[in-house]
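--- STAGE predict ---
source: upstream dedup step, 1 unique chain passed
mode: sequence only
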Amino acid sequence: MTHTNAIGWFDIYVTDLKRAGAFYEAVFGHKLQTVEDPTRETQMLAFPTEMSAYGASGALVKSLHGRPGAGGTLVYFSVEDCSTQEALVTRAGGMVLRPKFSIGAFGWVTLCLDTEGNQFGLNSRR
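--- STAGE serialize ---
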């Protein structure tokens, strides 16, 4: 590997792209961007990204090649304070599986479920 970040991109598989997009936009307060797939096999809504910044971006993906569900890879979103987005998850149609808890020197985590059945995490330093 030649990059300093181990993850370069992620896909969160969804069944209902419109519903999933509305959920993540409500929780994070950012408009997702349509990504055109040259193969026309998938529909995607990408999370906003700053290519020169630390971290990875990704997209919600509706595809015949993958399905949503808990138990696979867990994506953690970096936020200022887990409590803020945690409070928005249920209002947006998701579920808080484990409220904000300490992970010691690494900060705090909240575990959630989105409207498609995907588990995801929130991570903050405070």
